């Protein structure tokens, strides 16, 4: 009979928070099991081994069958030793290799007898999980910073930043990596991907495969993306509050879950394949004004009609108000020294990489230093952070002529959650040098060597400026849009103006146009002129409420361990119209599984 001193193993391996009856340990570190024989063990005569098996075709040479012996005279890849013996009970310490396969193992004891090898029968209660180990110096994901490890492996609740550069908003997210069933759901995803068992100890291969499996574009992965605004046959991306419901639904239904946008992909990816569950340190990162380079020339091309309006049919590149991805921490033995550490991985399906919708892992250091030739997808991420925005005028004969270049718009700010508290941390300097610095020029020159097609045109400085106001408008209210034109020349100017007002998704895609005007404005020398337009917004809105302002929670009843508490949640409708078909979703890490309440 085999038993495991679970509590001690859990504490020493930092797995005590997992809601599981199984043994969960980390590779590269000793754990202990107890074996009860039918008589006292005699080291001089008795021979036995503890066998670990993973996958359907165990093979010693492939690391999927590992016998562990109790004596120093005979050892295999994993070290074994007897740490204690009392009567018929033997305590054995076992140390998996720091690069062993990560996943669920079956465990047996094989005893040598005069009649041959006898081994225990399969018992699912003796199955154990072996995870990556950021505490072990020999592991490829070793992170030698306790505060970073606590935040990027053990913390259950995070903040995801969104909105715009000058109006940053927050979403709380329950990663739920320790919740019951989540670990099995993560391993099911790897099985579903048909990733070879032998690759599952390599964090580079695991994260690359996982970035493909988190989206459903080409492999029936976890989440279906939807940016249309119509979420009739699923859950709106803004309604999710955590990863648990998504992962358990996918594992039970065996079908992709509807719906996701970039922050949902990043948050679920953070839970299941890297952060906190399998043990690779990871964090969610938000890049404000993120370029989507559709044609691979590492610049953002905006094509204009001859009247100044954007040619939507020919403009394939776009700039997202923000884009969320993940960073994971690991060595990169496939790259030159210095390019390990934080790596970008992105599950949002934007462009294909080696034939599948995925991105990364791409070294953040390589991106910062313009070394975009290295795998995987460093050039694409470099463009998201560093693209020049080039505007082209398209004449009637189809000729394109650059008319303006903005070299400072893209990659304005990169944020992630701060260590140990619920505030933000600006990590822009980890991706790029200061704008206009000598280091930045060197990086861009290096990037040009690897195919970054920059436009170095110089354009004359215009003498008419346009100033748009900053407005804060409530839903359903009309407002005046006053545009100021300033003539800085000594001559009278006549300006043909193109004014377009559109409802735009955060990805830069236009939903509808509500305003179109082409006034002509005449401005005297060194004068200014104002142009005023009356507008009205009336939208049907999907609401994600900031809990600091709209939702109030109150706890009543007991406030001690093991005593029931009652929590009341109060939401006040801030609008002048009634809200209908309202869903309230709640969950709490380690406390409450996801709950949904519907109000007509």
UniProtKB/TrEMBL annotation:
InterPro entries: Ig-like_fold (IPR013783), Ig_E-set (IPR014756), Papain-like_cys_pep_sf (IPR038765), Transglutaminase (IPR050779), Transglutaminase-like (IPR002931), Transglutaminase-like_sf (IPR036985), Transglutaminase_animal (IPR023608), Transglutaminase_C (IPR008958). Keywords: Acyltransferase, Calcium, Metal-binding, Transferase. Its cofactor is Ca(2+). Its EC number is 2.3.2.13. Ca(2+) binds at residues 386, 388, 435, 440. The active site is at residues 262, 323, 346. The keyword Protease does not apply. It comes from the Eukaryota. The keyword Transferase applies. Residues 254-349 form the Transglutaminase-like domain. One of its GO terms (biological process) is nervous system development. It is an enzyme of class 2 (transferase). Binds 1 Ca(2+) ion per subunit. Pfam families: Transglut_C, Transglut_core, Transglut_N. Belongs to the transglutaminase superfamily. Transglutaminase family. This is protein-glutamine gamma-glutamyltransferase. It comes from Echeneis naucrates.
């Amino acid at each position: 009979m085999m038993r495991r001193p679970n509590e001690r193993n859990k504490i020493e391996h930092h797995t005590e928070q997992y809601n599981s009856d199984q043994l969960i340990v980390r590779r590269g570190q000793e754990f202990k099991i107890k074996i009860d024989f039918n008589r006292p063990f005699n080291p001089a005569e008795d021979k036995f081994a503890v066998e670990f098996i993973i996958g359907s075709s165990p093979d010693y040479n492939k690391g999927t069958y590992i016998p562990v012996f109790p004596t120093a005279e005979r050892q295999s890849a994993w070290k074994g030793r007897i740490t204690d013996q009392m009567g018929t009970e033997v305590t054995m310490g076992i140390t998996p290799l720091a690069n062993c396969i990560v996943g669920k193992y079956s465990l047996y004891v094989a005893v040598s007898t005069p009649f041959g090898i006898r081994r225990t029968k399969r018992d699912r209660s003796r199955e154990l999980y072996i995870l990556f180990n950021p505490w072990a110096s020999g592991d490829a994901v070793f992170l030698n910073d306790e505060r970073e490890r606590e935040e990027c492996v053990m913390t259950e609740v995070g903040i995801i930043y969104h909105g715009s550069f000058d109006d940053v908003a927050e979403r709380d997210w329950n990663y739920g990596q320790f919740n019951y069933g989540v670990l099995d759901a993560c391993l099911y995803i790897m099985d579903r991907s048909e990733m070879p068992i032998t690759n599952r100890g390599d964090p580079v291969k695991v994260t690359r495969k996982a970035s493909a499996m988190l989206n459903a574009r080409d492999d029936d992965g976890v989440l279906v993306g939807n940016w249309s605004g119509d979420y009739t046959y699923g859950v709106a991306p803004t309604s999710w509050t955590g990863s648990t419901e998504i992962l358990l639904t996918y594992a039970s239904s065996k079908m992709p879950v509807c719906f996701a946008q970039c922050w949902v992909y990043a948050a679920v990816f953070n839970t299941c394949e890297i952060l906190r569950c399998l043990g690779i340190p990871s964090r969610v990162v938000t890049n404000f004004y993120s370029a989507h380079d559709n044609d691979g020339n590492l610049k953002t091309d905006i094509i204009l009609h001859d009247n100044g309006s954007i040619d939507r049919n020919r403009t394939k590149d776009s700039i997202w108000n923000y884009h969320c991805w993940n960073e994971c921490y690991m060595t990169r033995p496939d790259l030159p020294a210095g390019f390990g550490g934080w790596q970008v991985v992105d599950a949002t399906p934007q462009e294909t990489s080696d034939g599948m919708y995925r991105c990364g892992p791409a070294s953040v250091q390589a991106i910062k230093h313009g070394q975009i030739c290295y795998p995987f997808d460093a050039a694409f991420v470099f463009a998201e952070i560093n693209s020049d925005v080039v505007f082209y005028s398209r004449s009637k004969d189809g000729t394109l002529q650059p008319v303006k270049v903005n070299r400072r718009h893209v990659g304005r700010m990169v944020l992630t959650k701060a260590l140990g508290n619920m505030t933000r941390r600006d990590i822009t300097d980890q991706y790029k040098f200061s704008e206009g610095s000598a280091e930045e020029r060197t990086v861009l020159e290096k990037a040009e060597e690897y195919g970054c097609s920059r436009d170095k045109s110089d354009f004359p400085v215009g003498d008419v400026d346009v100033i748009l106001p900053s407005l804060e408008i409530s839903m359903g209210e009309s407002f005046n849009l006053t545009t100021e034109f300033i003539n800085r020349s000594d001559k009278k100017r006549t300006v043909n103006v193109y004014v377009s007002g559109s409802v735009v998704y955060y990805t830069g895609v236009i939903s509808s146009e509500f305003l179109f005007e082409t006034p002509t404005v005449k401005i005297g020398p060194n004068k200014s002129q104002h142009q005023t337009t009356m507008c009205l917004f009336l939208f049907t809105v999907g609401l994600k409420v900031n809990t600091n302002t709209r939702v109030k929670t109150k706890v009543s009843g007991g406030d001690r361990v093991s005593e029931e508490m009652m929590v009341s949640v109060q939401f006040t409708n801030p609008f002048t119209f009634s809200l209908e078909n309202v869903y309230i979703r709640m969950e709490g890490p380690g406390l409450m599984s996801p709950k949904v309440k519907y109000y007509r």
